[in-house]
Amino acid sequence: MFQSIPRKPAVSGLYWYCVNSTRLVTSSSVREGSGAASWLGKRVGWALCWLQRGLEAGSGERKKEMVSILASQCTYVTGQRLRRAFQIGELYSNLYSERSRRSLVSSLWRRFQSRHSQSCKLLAALAGVFMWEEERIRDEELQRCADDMKNIERLTVNAGGGQEREEEGLQQGARPWEKVMDRKNFRVWRRPIVDSPLYEYRVFGTYTDVTPRQFFNVQLDTEYRKKWDSLVIKLEVFERDEASGSEIIHWVTHFPYPMYSRDYVYIRRYNVDVENNFMVLVSRAVEHPTIPESPDFVRVRSYQSKMVIKPHKSFDENGFDYLLTYSDDPQTVFPRYCLSWMVSSGMPDFLEKLHAATLMANNMELEVRDYISIKPVENKPTSNPERVPESSRSGQQQMEYA
User: Fold this and answer.
1) Is the alpha carbon torsion for 256, 261, 262, 263 positive or negative?
2) Beta carbons of 249 and 285 less than 8 angstroms apart
3) What sections of 285-370 are H helices per DSSP?
4) Which one has a higher pLDDT value, 121 or 289?
5) 296 close to 261: Cβ distance less than 8 angstroms
6) Residues in contact with 323: Cβ distance below 8 Å, sequence separation at least 6, in sequence order
7) Torsional class of 365: left (φ above 0), alpha (ψ -120 to 50), beta (otherwise)
8) Burial of 299 by CB count in 10 Å (0-12 exposed, 13-18 middle, 19+ buried)?
9) How far, in Å, CA of 238 to CA of 250, rounded?
10) For a 10 Å CB count at each end of the chain, is N or C smaller?
11) How far is residue 321's CA from residue 212's CA, in Å, rounded to a whole number?
């Protein structure tokens, strides 16, 4: 009788070692049986373990062979996933309209973000995507600005048109306001910002020679501002959010010599409430992954501006009150009193320029875009957002923001 000889596998010894290790992992995982998550984690651990042992024990040719096997497998799986994703995307593009696709992607992104918030932030930063869901200006923020204006009006009415009761109301609370300027058309208050050497400013003013519509439109029209504001170096709308009407603005402006010019990246949103007869414009600084800092300018990271305009009668008749709440950190090394003087004097100067630009647009009949007549996009579901024909959408008036 011939002596039996053990049969060698047809594949290389390194591959046979990997197969045996995998079988060992499977048998041990089944015996321990602590759930799908632990089973998967142990399999990954064993895979990394035999991969490390194989690379350490194998020769140069075996190492190359193992790396080649892994590379081929990863390439095949990745290509298959990409091909399937492309087919799914093409299918949805044929079935749904562009608006419905965006709504679907947004809902999926919000669901994924609620479960993996930190991973979403990292993924968005790497992909250069702005986090609209977290950064957009919401309705509650606009409503708080309108409530501040109502409180000022209530104090003024209770005082019988005087200023004493109004100032008493502003000086109450944990963070009272201190008056720093009193002029014919406006008054300025300030109060310290919590955990900061800077101040927050509030301006309450009145104009009687321009309409609320003109004043509001001049603020929003970025193209017209490039003509009347000589300090502007760059001012453009970088990105828009169709869901809320919020938009990203990149603004570069001159600062007094010898300081460098500053650039602002901020989000803004406006609302026109015809029923309650007021307008709100809110802006605040944000970080945008596709607008990097420039070595020629100093990036301002702390900035917010909230303005409420209340017409005396209507949007098209002269006369209105406005309330502006403003804070800014221009990143300077000047002492605190110098910075306070710069901000408190620069803000009234800007308001006077804005008022003069409104008068010039009215007297010279310059073309300024009307933002009040265009209704912002409401965040309400439609009856049937799917399969919206392109012809019906093109016939409707599309909302465009400044």
Assistant:
1) positive
2) no
3) 336-363
4) 289
5) yes
6) 145, 148, 149, 152, 202, 203, 204, 307, 308, 310
7) left
8) middle
9) 7
10) N
11) 9
- Whether omega before 295 lies within 30 degrees of 0, making that bond cis, reads no
Measured over the CA atoms of residue 56, residue 62, residue 67 and residue 71, the dihedral's sign is negative
Kindly state the tokens that stand for 269: 């949103």
Tell which residue, 315, 342, 355, 361, has the closest CA to residue 185: 355
pLDDT in tens, 290-307: 888 999 999 999 999 999
- CA–CA separation, 137 vs 249, rounded Å? 13
- Contact, 247 vs 237, CB < 8 A? yes
Q: How confident is the model at residue 124 (pLDDT cuts 50, 70, 90)?
A: low
- Tell whether the model's pLDDT for residue 209 goes beyond 80: yes
- With beta carbons less than 8 A apart as the criterion, state whether 201 and 344 touch: yes
What 3-state class would DSSP assign to 219? helix
The Cα–Cα gap between 274 and 208 comes to 20
Residues forming beta bridges with residue 191, ordered by sequence position: 200
Q: Quote the mean pLDDT of the chain.
A: 74
At 258-282, the pLDDT tens digits run 788 999 999 999 999 988 899 999 9
CA angle centred on 222, ends 213 and 135, rounded to 5°: 95
